[in-house]
Amino acid sequence: ADILIAGSFSQSAEEMFSKSFVCHRLLQDADIQSLPVGVAEKIRAIAAAPNASVHSNLIKKLPGLEIIANFGVGYDNIDVSYAARHKIIVTNTPDVLTEEVADVAIGLMIMTARELSAAERWLRDGNWNGSYPLTRGTLRSKRLGIFGLGRIGLAIAKRAEAMNMEICYHNRNRVRDVRYPYCASLRELASHCDILLCAAPGGDATRRAIGSEIFEALGPDGILINIGRGSTVDETALIKALKDGTIMSAGLDVFHDEPHVPEDLLTMDNVVLLPHVASASQFTRNAMGKLQVDNLVSWFRDGLPLTPVPETPWPRP
Ligand code: NDP
Asked: Which of 10, 239, 245, 307 is most buried (CB neighbours < 10 A)?
């Protein structure tokens, strides 16, 4: 089958695609018109990288499109409702990255609470003749509030439980079979916890959900950790809250306009900033790439997507 590669992939991923498919490349923001004449009509699948925006205008121009396979569990880069209305399958790469992302969430939480990157900068800058100041932040006797207790949120909760932290959460729906207290709103969650950790998806439903009201509820000793999507946090409100002490600190793996990180954040010492690396080990990225390709192979061989997203028209009515 002819497939369209949208966005940038590693060389090993490109090789995996080439083994099974006839590949055509669409670079980020490149116009579909730039494909050679007759190619758009032949495309039956899109392999999308996280930096590729698969919007309705692109989908419209591919009349033979059957499936969009996304690299990553979050798929806010794809117009999934448009695809669903046109019976186009969308798949993502759940589970294979869960533990890796949960590890980084916990790492980022410890780094932020205990100022580990600031302490390392202090050492490298040759300041170790006295002692690094005692940190105001700690995880001892603190409650972790998880916004988005799904696959990743639960893996984080399991780790935090082993670290003797109390846990509470907010989702739209209560999770069955968990003992953690449920908060009916994000505001309630923020006022009940010391560390607010976002592992919720991006997209319209969560856009700028974490804003000034939430920071006020979190309070002056509060910490925000975001490993979900940058769009979920009102970055301007966050910068203000960090500057005026409405909250204490923040650890961020994701940003509103990646790879752009606001200058204000870059110059603050009470933030830990990571370049969207939560799943970025060779081991896990390979597993994600394999699942993306396996979805396409299974679709074209057996007519079965392996990991369709909930919004996708599968099983076929
Ligand atoms: P899941 O779908 O398993 O979990 C998402 C959770 O968020 C669910 O419990 C869901 O519960 C809750 N949720 C969704 N929408 C809302 C809402 N509007 N309000 C409140 N809660 C909501 O996904 P995963 O755990 O596998 O992944 C979560 C997200 O993590 C991904 O979508 C992605 O954006 C991000 N991610 C980031 C990575 C990184 O590199 N930083 C790597 C991998 C993932 P309910 O439906 O009941 O509301």
From this structure: 307
Ligand 1 pocket, CB under 6 A = 73-74, 94, 97, 101, 148-153, 171-173, 199-202, 205-206, 227-229, 253-254, 276, 278-279
User: Would you call 78 helix, strand, or coil by DSSP?
Assistant: strand
What DSSP designation does 181 have? P
Q: Which of 160, 165, 167, 55 is nearest to 107 (CA)?
A: 160
- Cα torsion at 250, 255, 260, 262 (round to 10°)? -30
The residues that bridge with 196 in the sheet, in sequence order, are 145, 224
pLDDT for 146 beyond 90: yes
Q: Which of 97, 152, 178, 206 to mutate to test the pocket of ligand 1 (most atoms within 8 A of CB)?
A: 152
pTM: predicted TM-score of the whole model, two decimal places:
0.97
The token pair that represents 32 in the structure block: 């579909």
**Does the annotation mark 258 as catalytic?**
yes
What pLDDT, in 10s, does the model give residues 81-118?
999 999 999 999 999 999 999 999 999 999 999 999 99
Q: Do residues 293 and 20 touch, judged by C-beta distance below 8 A?
A: yes
Amino acid at 81: S
